[in-house]
Design goal:
Length: 271
């Protein structure tokens, strides 16, 4: 009987030990499973983000882009191998929001791939280029002309007024001024040359740089107005006269940032 009792006791001990080992193993396995899940998930998310960033880095300049940059740079160098003041505006056409004019003097060795007329660059690439341009600029001046001035002077005179102020401010810091298709500007120094270039933002490196800076600046303003007037969709159309924009005006009324002189025929857009 004693031997049988010993065997039973030994069997119970063995079963207990085995059960304990089994429970520890299961617990460790469950812990390992969830722990592994916690470690893997963030890694997967990071990989997705990295892949997305790589995919969306923007265009990678090819031979055509390099040749285009050389063309823009050559145009400027043929005019002057010294400091050039490039001026361009953004926002003459919209029915809402300010007009923005940028004057910029780039470093002589500036050579930023991708610079071109801001209308031909995607929003993401404009933001990237804007940062590079500002880093490569010796002088930058941005003029913001509000809607009241636009309505009072008209859009052309408001544009000239801002450009004129930039020229007065920077003519002593540059040898020549290149302006995108605006004539009738003058400098204090009668010997200072101001050249009006048709399609300048697609011809001159300096003007193209000014075009991008002005565009990014104005777009950021319109996105801020979206927060104040969410029912108008300013972050999408940036103040231009889209159907959705006109519909919003007819429904909600004219805001303080709308150009009243541009909306004299507003009723024509009513369905």
């Amino acid at each position: 009987m004693k031997e049988e009792n010993k065997k039973r006791l030994l069997n119970r001990i063995i079963k207990y030990v085995l059960l304990t080992i089994l429970m520890i193993g299961i617990s460790f396995g469950v812990y390992s499973y969830f722990k592994a899940g916690e470690d893997i998930q963030p890694i997967q998310e990071i990989q997705k983000i990295d892949q997305q960033e790589t995919k969306d880095e923007g265009y990678k300049p090819d031979k055509a882009e390099k040749e285009y940059l050389e063309k823009l740079k050559k145009f400027d160098l043929d005019i002057s191998n010294d400091k050039i003041l490039g001026i361009d505006e953004v926002g003459r056409g919209p029915i809402a929001g300010p007009l923005v004019v940028c004057g910029i003097i780039m470093k002589k060795d500036s050579n930023i791939l991708g610079v071109k007329d801001s209308k031909k660059v995607t929003e993401k690439n404009r933001i990237k280029l804007n940062k590079e341009i500002l880093e490569d600029a010796e002088y930058v001046c941005i003029k913001e002309i509000n809607v009241n001035t636009i309505d009072e002077l008209n859009i052309l005179n408001a544009t000239k007024k801002a450009m004129q102020e930039i020229i007065y401010e920077f003519e002593e810091k540059s040898t020549v001024c290149l302006v995108d298709a605006v004539k009738g500007l003058r400098a204090k120094n009668s010997e200072y040359n101001i050249l009006s270039i048709v399609k300048g933002d697609d011809t001159s490196y300096s003007i193209a740089c000014a075009s991008i800076v002005a565009k990014v600046y104005r777009d950021s303003l319109m996105e801020k107005y979206e927060e104040e007037f969410p029912e108008y969709g300013f972050s999408k159309h940036k103040g231009y006269g889209t159907k959705a924009h006109y519909d919003a005006i007819l429904k909600n009324g004219i805001t303080k940032i709308h150009r009243k002189s541009f909306l004299k025929n507003l009723e024509e857009h009513r369905k």
